[in-house]
Amino acid sequence: MKWENPPNDSIKDVLDSSRNIAVVGLSDNPDRTSYQISKIMQDKGYKIIPVNPTIDNVLGEKAYNSLTDVKEPIDIINVFRRSEFLPGIAEEAAKTDCKVFWAQQGLINQEAYDYLKERDFMVIMDMCIKVAHSILV
User: Fold this and answer.
1) Dihedral angle, C-alpha 132, 64, 42, 105, nearest 10 °
2) H helices of the chain, where?
3) Distance (Å, rounded) from C-alpha 4 to C-alpha 12?
4) CA distance 110 to 103
5) Treating both helix axes as pointing N-terminal to C-terminal, what angle do 110-117 and 86-93 enclose, rounded to 10 degrees?
6) Cβ–Cβ contacts within 10 Å for residue 117, how many?
7) Angstrom distance (rounded) from CA 119 to CA 51
8) pLDDT digits (tens, 9 = 90+) for 82-107
9) How far apart are the C-alpha atoms of 58 and 50, rounded to whole Å?
10) Interacting residues of 36 by C-beta distance below 8 A, sequence separation 6+
11) What is the spatial distance between Cα 2 and Cα 81, in angstroms, rounded to a whole number?
12) pTM across the whole model
């Protein structure tokens, strides 16, 4: 089945009910999109959980090497890695208690989508979380 995003009301419900966003690929460079989007979401009241093995902390939060290292609850897994990395990240996501996988604008991978849908994830691809929040919330 070709990937398809959930309806806007479902995305709005997730954004309204979520507090913790694990950001895979979050950079500590303020010039990078992952940093800018995560900072905006943090300013909107979400707790940002950085997942990047190359940094120790960013935006005042401890960074984790992988999703499975995160000890606190994750409501949304937001990915800022190239599309070819999505299947591996999807496999790691399936080992967490989170059920929402969000691939940022420009990121699509059918294999990752199929894998996650088989595991009852809500999968959002090729959509900026900040833009969705601005429009829907």
Assistant:
1) -20
2) 8-17, 33-43, 86-93, 110-117, 129-136
3) 16
4) 12
5) 10
6) 16
7) 22
8) 999 999 999 999 999 999 999 999 99
9) 7
10) 30
11) 21
12) 0.96
Q: Cβ(90)–Cβ(98) under 8 Å? A: no
Helix (H, G, I), strand (E, B) or coil at 52: coil
- 20-74 residue pLDDT tens: 999 999 999 999 999 999 999 999 999 999 999 999 999 999 999 999 999 999 9
State yes or no: pLDDT of 118 exceeds 80.
yes
Residue type at 125 in one-letter notation: M
Give me the amino acid identity at 30.
P
Amino acid at 103: A
Which helix (H) or strand (E) segment holds residue 122: the answer is: strand 122-124
Q: Closest Cα to residue 79, out of 107, 46, 120?
A: 107
Give the torsion sign (CA, 108, 75, 26, 127).
Answer: positive
- Walk me through the domains of the chain, giving residue ranges and CATH numbers: 8-136 (3.40.50.720)
Query: Alpha-carbon distance 79 to 21, whole Å?
Result: 10
DSSP assigned state of 119 = T
